Amino acid sequence: MLRLPDDWLWDFWLARSGPEYHVMYLKAPRSLGDPELRHARATVGHAVSRDLTNWTVLGDALLPGPPGAWDDRAVWTGSIIRAGERWWCFYTGTRLGEDGLIQRVGAAVSDDMVRWEKHPANPLMELDPARYEELDLSAWHDQAWRDPWVMARNGHYEALLTARAATGPADARGVVARCASPDLVRWEVGDPLRIEPAGQYGHLEVPQLIALEGRWYLLFCTAADTHSAAWRARTGATPRTGTYYAVADDPSGPFRLVDGDPLGPGDGTTTYAGRIVETDAGPRFLAWRLHDSTGSFAGELIDPIPVGIAPDGTLRLG
Predict the structure, then answer these.
(1) Is 210 a member of any domain?
(2) Does 2 reside within a domain?
(3) Which of 78, 114, 167, 206 has the fewest CB atoms found within 10 Å of its own CB?
(4) Cα separation of 294 and 77, whole Å?
């Protein structure tokens, strides 16, 4: 697994270049003591591997911007896409002047995935208040507009983001927002993905959309305390922190939530922000370990787990 001696790591995203997998991850010093302090100190680390198990750590990929920049407080979760000969790393930024409460999305570009340059037009994606919830501390603890998952589709680009609907019960406004672009620079905000049943979570974090055996899988993560009252009434289950998913026949949806235990290693630990990675040996599940078996904060990347698909479309790990 990838464990840093001096830093916690948490949310991550990957890209493959030839035989190597590049992972970008959020990191902050373990010397902070309290893991909750990590969010305001986040930078983006970088490591490479050929097997998703043995990693070589490189220098940091992204740091917060200079004072007054749109990302001068912290840089958060994103994704990587290749367009032509260049790599684009989309990421979330927050500002010191706003106490980190408002999130925006920008990008950095690279020819080699090692040296990154932030795009001069940043930020590239900002929340549309006609569709999504603006900062309202009576309803939620920040203005959610983060975790961009960017992909090429039908001659243009689409991005999925963690966001909240502008209306509805405060504990059930979590949605996956959509944006579209012809060139990765100009983005138009659209309506959220349709996920059925709706109104199940306060937020759906770190979305990933991936095609597996003719179906489309939308992965997301959420905490036990962000399952809505509607979810509790519908399922009668005990909510658990982890990675969940919905499935559809088309990447535009509608998506059907798959109820059940969160995806993870089943070893008594809690993992979060899981991703499915396509490898030459088949799909593999990766996540970062939030809590170890004693309940202590871990902050490390687990080893990959094979992903199987049952005839009814449900995912099976192991």
Answers:
(1) yes
(2) no
(3) 167
(4) 27
- Model pTM score: 0.97
User: How does residue 283 score in pLDDT terms, banded at 50, 70 and 90?
Assistant: very high
- Distance, CA of 46 to CA of 304 (rounded, Å): 17
Query: What is the rounded CA–CA span in Å between residue 129 and residue 163?
Result: 11
Q: Give 58's pLDDT tier (boundaries 50, 70, 90).
A: very high
pLDDT of residue 2: 97
- On whether residue 191 sits in a domain, the answer given is yes
Residue 148: predicted pLDDT: 98
Domain that residue 159 falls in: 7-317
Residue 18 CA neighbour count, 13 Å, CB half: 3
Q: Can you give the CATH number for the domain in which 299 is found?
A: 2.115.10.20
Sign (positive/negative) of CA torsion 41, 103, 175, 179? negative
What is the pairing mode between strands 195-196 and 255-257?
Answer: parallel
- For the sheet with 86-94, list strands across it: 74-83, 86-94, 104-110, 117-118
